[in-house]
């Protein structure tokens, strides 16, 4: 079996998984954040105690052969040389959601390089590992000068367990602003700031770095023979799960707080940083065209704080379509897929009166956002959906109706990241595709033509400049005309 650590921004999970990626048991804890000084930061010391004690507890119930970690792409740790010195960090790990000091933000911008060097637009708060390193170096130069390694989250935990430091491409390719995925080289800021000394040698995500450190095994009662793997970026490991199942030429859309899309087929010239598009890396170092939009936050704004648990009935969707009730982007503080739309979200048509109608409108809106993501990424015929939006069948059904030329499938397993991470342990010995049950959305037969016309009208409204929407509304004809 494989022990999988999944470090999210809000919660941290430790799972026991079979070699085929099936999750047997999962334990979780909030990811603690402390106030400054010198900045708001994660409590790595407390989290380390939980990780090691929980791993020991799981090891008494399961026989593990390997440990692997995944993590969100906006976290890294500047460490010393000794993983046994407290939490190993020479400066606290920055919480990426806090605002940047204005001088750090302004001085960093001209250092960040081209879009290909960054792999993304420059995002909110303290997102991006290069920007965090710059903040550390500018504010705490003495401590920064004593650092030995800069490690992405999965590699930090691998180092804590094994004592071996490594860099890994899928994590560095997750909008770190440190790694140019297209050219497979460090971004210019790394050389300009002299940060090469902090970057350890590269290792593959599935590579064994070593066994658990003997002193750690003795202190917590951990299995000393446990192989510690390099690990990788959470969304890239979710993508790897489908690769391990034998899928090729596909786009995967994961849903939750973010709608995240990945395709290995997206040409670089299609990437538009002004529409939330990114250049990521898979675990093999190959390019992945990506797209990000905060669909979960938009869903909550439209549906309200307590949407009904029941599935949306078809007749509720039919009313939204028939009466041309629209939610138009964007309800969040950024533009998402529609430049100039930040905080300009609004509703057009009669009001969605009931809680169920508001939920239906939110799911339909997110299906339309997803269709925009897929259009931006390219033409892969196979689309695989996973994540929280699939709890209501309407999301997948609406998307399939909006994209009749594509093959839409869904995966109801909510542990895709952990499953992908676990599958790394068998990467070099796997002889057959990993099992992967995929479902097919039911056909909204009677609604399909009207839903496609509704989708075309929504797209015209959404892509119009916010100031042009009233004019558009006044001149468009009847939906059924």
Automatic annotation (TrEMBL):
<keyword id="KW-0418">Kinase</keyword>
<dbReference type="GO" id="GO:0016301">
    <property type="term" value="F:kinase activity"/>
</dbReference>
<dbReference type="InterPro" id="IPR043129">
    <property type="entry name" value="ATPase_NBD"/>
</dbReference>
<dbReference type="InterPro" id="IPR018484">
    <property type="entry name" value="FGGY_N"/>
</dbReference>
<dbReference type="GO" id="GO:0005975">
    <property type="term" value="P:carbohydrate metabolic process"/>
</dbReference>
<protein>
    <submittedName>
        <fullName>Carbohydrate kinase, FGGY</fullName>
    </submittedName>
</protein>
<comment type="similarity">
    <text>Belongs to the FGGY kinase family.</text>
</comment>
<dbReference type="Pfam" id="PF21546">
    <property type="entry name" value="FGGY_C_2"/>
</dbReference>
<dbReference type="InterPro" id="IPR050406">
    <property type="entry name" value="FGGY_Carb_Kinase"/>
</dbReference>
<dbReference type="Pfam" id="PF00370">
    <property type="entry name" value="FGGY_N"/>
</dbReference>
<feature type="domain" description="Carbohydrate kinase FGGY C-terminal">
    <location>
        <begin position="249"/>
        <end position="428"/>
    </location>
</feature>
<keyword id="KW-0808">Transferase</keyword>
<feature type="domain" description="Carbohydrate kinase FGGY N-terminal">
    <location>
        <begin position="1"/>
        <end position="236"/>
    </location>
</feature>
<dbReference type="InterPro" id="IPR049382">
    <property type="entry name" value="FGGY_C_2"/>
</dbReference>
